[in-house]
Amino acid sequence: MKNGSFETFQIAAMAVDPVHVGTGGARLGRVDNTIVRDPVTKVPKIPGSSVAGVLRTYVAMHEEATNGARQVNGKDKPYYPDCAGQGQPRRDGFGGHCGRSDCKVCTVFGFARGDRGGFAGLASFSDAHVLLFPVATRLGPIWITAPGALRLIDRLRNYEDVADNEVHRAASSNDPLNLGWLLLPVSEHDMQRVTTALGALHVPQYIVDRLGIVSDKLLSHVVNSNLEVRTSVAIDPATGAAEEGALFTYEALPRGTVLLWDVTCRNPQHFRIGQAAVQAVTSVQAVHDVVATGFPYLEALGIGGMGSRGMGRLRVLNGVAGVQENAPEGQ
To answer: What's the pTM value of the predicted model, to 2 decimals?
Structure first.
């Protein structure tokens, strides 16, 4: 979506490692530490606040590495960690967001300063939803999606429904396909619209070639039945052995999951910070480009918890082009 005031960019990313964005608590049941789910569909997701938070940190790290030391009001003011934090300075007066109109971090992601008020920021982030989910089958991995997930893509807003008792693929088969505990007949379906849309998001061809589409009702069951579940234990620092009673399990989106989220970038020419015009960025595309400087860090440093256990890395597949393309209506 695009107009003179804002533009929305759709970002697709693939999990290089399992991704665990926890709910912050534990429950009795199959696993102790659960991940965030959409309250309606029950499909796991990554909250937009988590996406914005880590990207703010990574952009601040990039600015610090690129521009080096700077001074604000005669004092050293690093981009990282100051402009990556929660905003308010410490009691000694150090730290906190700079809130300057020439700071890419504060103008794009917003800032909170008691003496300067606050600024919402020029970029806003939607939740990252599961677009394609890998499932082990007798034919090897198949990436499963559903009409509701495909409709998140701009050019597939009117994608048709799928029956609950079948899986759509590019070619039919006399043999049913197993998706975990589900065994579904395969129905041949024209996948050209879907493959074209996924290609525009730079989804790898080996994933596009192994697609299956189930109903929205079944997607939740397929995803939640095939999450990665790991068992871990806390280590007693005194003995170096497992701590008694500290065994726990946690779940994660498996590697190979493709997620999709929107970044809405506002036109900086329509905003002022205090009495000053925004100087750090001058166009909607420039706002997106600032956000995109954090994408490589996602693949190196990841998102969510359990990073010390090999989780969290995301590879952004399309960090350059916006969603507006010369496509026919409904494509």
So the answer is: 0.90
